[in-house]
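# nightly structure sweep
# worker-07 picked up a monomer target from the shared queue
# config: single-sequence mode, recycle default, output format = structure tokens
# input follows
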Amino acid sequence: MSEERCDKCGKPPAICVCDRVVSLPTKVRVLVLRHPQEDDAILGTAPLLAASLPSCEVRTGLSWASLAHALDREDADPTRWAVVYPTKLDASVSPEARERPVLVLDRKGRERAEDAPPLEGIVVLDGTWSQAKALWWRNPWLLKLARVVLRPREPSIYGRARKEPRREYVSTLEAVADVLPALGEPESTRDQLRRLMRTMVQRHRDQQPR
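# output follows
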């Protein structure tokens, strides 16, 4: 595959999907912390999120001093943000809640109170599972955020193109696509993001030797 890359998404022209991008404004902000070694991944999905969601910001690095530092906003309120990351559920979480595709918890693993202020944004760690763990441990301020735990509705769109260690581990785009409707965004936003990723993966498959 050619080393030439698209100026916008950084992907080879053969799998670039910039022609299919649709702007999807959301009230919920998305902060993607991308591991440096994920930056050149051909099938990485962070560029698709950045192109589709005006409220999405991607930061590449290993550590930031705080949420405010990562967002470059002094007024960032950690109590209004959640991080999408596997976490141990508190014993108080009901069996019904444990079955939800998207479970929003407080930072101690308990169900977030219904009268809690709405979340302003979510943080997603972008990289392989080992890279995501490295980002988690290098940024202790993430422990101050609420948690979002996923039980994906469907297996990853990657299929055989990029294996995930467990069924509940999906791409960054798929995780965000699942979380946004649970936080009040339209289901159509999820559908459009997943459609964009399916197009990218299919174009990648089309380039592989038979």
